[in-house]
Amino acid sequence: MSVAIVGAGLTGSLLACFLARRGLEVTLYERRPDPRTGQAERGRSINLAISERGLDALRRIGLVDQVMADALPMKGRMIHPVDGPLDFQQYSAGGDRAINSIGRGALNNALLTAATAAPGVTVEFEHRLVELDSQAGRMVFATPSGKVSAEADVVLGADGAGSAVREQLLAEGVVAEEVDFLDYGYKELSIPAADGEFALDPGALHIWPRGTSMMIALPNPDRSFTCTLFWPAGAFDALTDAQSIDGHFRQHYPDLLPLAPDLVDDYLNNPVGVLGTVHTLPWQAHGRTALLGDAAHAIVPFYGQGANCAFEDVVELDRCLDDTGGSWARALPLFEARRRENTEAIAEMALANFVEMRDKVASPVFRLTKRVEHA
Ligand code: FAD
């Protein structure tokens, strides 16, 4: 039984590790060159908050200790008002539970290395899916040396929010999609280590709630922080030079300025990312082609759950294969039946959490309510 996985990101690489344990012949096709030999893309979500949902999947393939060795536990959020003192709000009543800041690149590389070491797994880099016949399992990839055809018994699209597999299924008329773009974009900024130390408390997820805009910062193992500024998409264009950038941050994020010496360079050179929610129906066709992770149900990042949720997909698909005796034709619809309600719930919660993070966390009523909940 041969399985093609399109996309060797977080979902695809993890999926390859799980499927290899079933003795399947797995080929991972990835449009990029091997990320372990190149540089990370500039300004693309350098770190991720990984929670127990994601750790559970890593534990099942024996990778959790390796990944957690570099993780930075964040036990609460640290609110940065425009003026006044910082406010730390712990995530759990006892203050003992945390979400973990983990480097996206390191996590992806660890998963890829585990996948390539697994028996029966082959990885083809610089293979971009451009054509798919979902009923026959036939694929065409654009590669540096021209177009290459391939076939597999099962084709799994783990190729992210802009999924080419989903696009092909749409063109065939076997799935429908709705993409709700948020009227907000995001830009990454950086806070380097100061004299070799973290410039902010590394035990917290930092939030600068500003109503229509919001910034967050997560710690990195090299003692820097990566900040993500969320703002109505067109608003970014208003700041075009050092003076306007400096003036804006001095007014709205005054405590950031002394910590971010590369602010102007980051602001002018890092791209503005788009945010949206992907709804696809159904996620599978013909019992042999299916979508997982962001390709099926990308969500906005405000709950920090997209990758965690994608990891849960992989665990659930594996469970469905167990429960159907390895029948893909039965496992794929079962996977969708079991997962859809959960992914729709987290999509809604992620949107709701945006309002909470950019606005409510700073309100005295919210803080009081949280303290009563924790008491
Ligand atoms: P992707 O990570 O997008 O990977 C898809 C892979 O497919 C890529 O390697 C790509 O190169 C490849 N590919 C694409 N097209 C093709 C093609 N045609 N042929 C072959 N290969 C192809 N989630 C969390 O859990 N916690 C967080 O804190 C968090 N923070 C986030 C912050 C931001 C700003 C954003 C935007 C997202 C965040 N997420 C977070 C969500 C998380 O990034 C995604 O849910 C996760 O990356 C999904 O993984 P994936 O493998 O499904 O897709």
From TrEMBL:
Cofactor: FAD
Ranges in a coiled coil: none
BP-aspect Gene Ontology terms: anthranilate metabolic process; kynurenine metabolic process; L-tryptophan catabolic process; NAD+ biosynthetic process; quinolinate biosynthetic process
Pathway linked to the protein: Cofactor biosynthesis; NAD(+) biosynthesis; quinolinate from L-kynurenine: step 1/3
Pfam families: FAD_binding_3 (PF01494)
Swiss-Prot/TrEMBL keywords: FAD, Flavoprotein, Membrane, Monooxygenase, NADP, Oxidoreductase, Pyridine nucleotide biosynthesis, Transmembrane, Transmembrane helix
FAD-binding domain: residues covered: 2-321
UniProt keyword annotation of Transmembrane present: yes
Gene Ontology terms, MF aspect: FAD binding; kynurenine 3-monooxygenase activity
Gene3D superfamilies in UniProt: FAD/NAD(P)-binding domain
Enzyme class (EC, first level): oxidoreductase
Catalytic activity, as annotated: L-kynurenine + NADPH + O2 + H(+) = 3-hydroxy-L-kynurenine + NADP(+) + H2O
Its EC number(s): 1.14.13.9
The protein's role, per its UniProt record: Catalyzes the hydroxylation of L-kynurenine (L-Kyn) to form 3-hydroxy-L-kynurenine (L-3OHKyn). Required for synthesis of quinolinic acid.
HAMAP family the record matches: Kynurenine_monooxygenase
Family as reported in the entry's similarity comment: Belongs to the aromatic-ring hydroxylase family. KMO subfamily.
Entry protein name: Kynurenine 3-monooxygenase
Organism (species): Kribbella turkmenica
Taxonomic path: Bacteria, Bacillati, Actinomycetota, Actinomycetes, Propionibacteriales
Gene designation: kmo
